[in-house]
Amino acid sequence: MKKATIRTDRYFITGDVDKRIYGSFIEHLGRAVYEGIYQPGHPQADEKGFRRDTLALVKELNVPVVRYPGGNFVSGYRWEDTVGPADKRPARAELAWNVIETNEFGLNEFADWSKLSGSEIMMAVNLGTRGVDDARNVLEYCNFPGGTYYSDLRKQHGYAEPHNIKLWCLGNEMDGPWQIGHKTAEEYGRLATETAHAMKLLDPSIELVACGSSNGGMKTFGEWEATVLDHAYEDIDYLSLHVYYDNNQNNTPEFLAKNLDMDDFISTVVSICDYVKGKKHSKKQINLSFDEWNVWYHSKEADKLITPWSKAPHQLEDVYNFEDALLVGSMLITLLKHCDRVKIACLAQLVNVIAPIMTSDTGAWRQTIFYPFLHASTLGRGKVLTTLVDAPCYSAGKFDCVPYLDAVITEDEENESLTVFAVNKDLEEDMEVSCDLRQYEGYQVARHIVLTNDDMKAVNTEAAPNTVAPHENGVSKMEDGCLQAVLGKHSWNVIVLKKVK
Ligand code: AHR
């Protein structure tokens, strides 16, 4: 059995966990909205057409913020098509995903749904086909109390109170050639700063996210960030990062190492932000919004067969397996380790489309990746202790030394509890892990949740929804102030320690 040590100190704090790192994403794409969160006539639908079964799972996940309405969709988004009487709303050819968008579900319906789900909205404005004027109009519609054209229009539509949306994205992935209205860094930087300026004149209480690169592999990565920040540094609050990983090579050790790439991506973007800060002699710090992250590859072949211009087709419906859940767990650990700079993160996406929750006409169920997200979102609140891991490592692909163990510790002072999140990436051996916690006198192990499976490719389906599900029989104990745990081979572990009174 391999051995590893986790080292921490209660006075070495990485930062507070901003709860918004447990955000998610609903795009007008595939069956995320239609048949996902909204399906009038379905036996589970409420009077507004919202699916109660989906809502219950979203609430279980405890998602504090949901990004909307895209994604690539936002670059052709006409928000005014989506408000007012539903029977008067135009259907449009949606160019990002080659489908027909009926606009039956729109901005106000999403605001209603968000209230029910207990999440804030992270709204995106269209900087692909549109610009400053459209951004200030939609902001006026959403946030202005009344007495102006767009705020009064909202009232006519039945919404007397403003939606008060505090977080806004300035477009989506504008560096990507696939984007409608794709821009150079100079063009986007200029447009982002002008838009940000106008939006903050209208509502200075909002926070703005500018687009970073679509992923760290873009040719323009680095230069894009520096140029955009050169223009927009003082007008924006966050820079975005996106990443999706795959196991196309069917190489599990290498796949499970990919959160190291995410770690490096974050550190690099932090460096660029701070370089521009230095260059501008600015007092302001730009933080990060990792507003799209996940595993995405299982559905790519099936998506090539979709009939163009259909309505709400089965698009991007990845069926996640057990090893995907392990990588998602490791990615969550990486995000937590960077909580001093990553303040927002959105698991992309939430329902049906590369999602932890799936629905059909007959039910809703939890995919494998639901569980690590659930555990982190519900048990990883408070602050992050700087957590060092001393573990043997392996080499895989471009990664020379991948520790077999990923771990991070969060502390919830109010509830006098600690949570250790840990992934054992070893496919062959269990691991003995120890952590000196003598600074936490009286703390005892309260729970040790484990997610594992003999079959790395095991999946949950509607017919067999619990094939991959956590159990609470993890092996760990406190001995002389030291946590001693055995982490099973290829497992996600959540150890909760509580002060015993
Ligand atoms: O989440 C799916 C798509 O991935 C989003 O629409 C886009 O922003 C990204 O490329």
Describe the structure.
This protein is an alpha/beta fold and 501 residues long. It has helices at 52-61, 107-117, 132-143, 149-156, 185-202, 223-232, 252-256, 259-279, 300-303, 322-337, 370-379, and strands at residues 2-7, 13-16, 23-25, 65-68, 92-94, 99-101, 120-125, 167-170, 207-210, 238-245, 287-295, 342-347, 357-359, 364-366, 383-385, 388-390, 393-396, 399-403, 405-412, 417-424, 431-436, 443-452, 475-479, 482-487, 491-499. The strands form six sheets. Strands 3-4-7-8-9-10-11-12 form an eight-stranded parallel barrel, surrounded by six helices. Strands 2-15-19-20-25-22 form a six-stranded antiparallel β-sheet, with helices on one face. It has a five-stranded mixed β-sheet with strand order 16-1-21-24-23, with no helix packed on it. β8 (167-170), α5 and β9 form a beta-alpha-beta unit. The longest helix is centred in the middle third of the chain and has 21 residues, at 259-279. The protein is globular and about 70 Å long. It binds alpha-L-arabinofuranose. Alpha-L-arabinofuranose (AHR) is lined by residues 27, 70-72, 172-173, 214, 292, 348-349. Alpha-L-arabinofuranose binds at residues 27, 70-72, 172-173, 214, 292, 348-349.
